[in-house]
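For the sake of transparency, this paper describes our internal protein records without simplification. The tokens are whole numbers drawn from a learned vocabulary of local backbone shapes. One such record is reproduced below, unchanged from the form in which we store it.

. . .
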Amino acid sequence: MDKLIESLGSLVSGGLVALLTWWLTTRARNRQDQDREREVLRGHADALIVAVADLRAAGAANRMLWETLVERGRTVLLAGLACVGGAARARIAGGTDVQSGLVGMGRGVELLAQERIVSKQAAALREPFTRIAAAAAPLLRCPDPALVTATEELMNAAGNLEDTARLEEKLAAFGRAARVATTPPPTRRERRRARRAG
């Protein structure tokens, strides 16, 4: 009988050890999975922030290169010079005043059209918008509704580069939502300390 009790005790203690080992292993694996998910989410959030920064930089470069008063003045000056040059060439070739005026206007319009095409190509905002959409897609599938809302609002704000204050506000709100979503929940010990301190 003693051997039976001893073997039963050994079996129970072995079962308890196995159960405890299984529980601790499962808990550690779950924690690692959650940490990995938070790290991936953090990477997507960082990618979206970088894409928005690239968009802002491309927009600022576009404004500096093509939309300043000096650049517009240069464009008008170049168009005027092309107009005068074309008119002079037509006049030298024996054209009438009307013909030389038309040739000059044609040269000016041609230069303005080329300038317009180049300015649209130089804007190059398509790539940053594509990167924003690619970075935002996984965040829009996130289970955290606050992060999804912040992502949507940031994408909407990025669509209007002229309203920089709104873009900055939505970027800050997105950063806060991403920080909350990627912060691990407090442990039992941290919750107890917070209750004691509070």
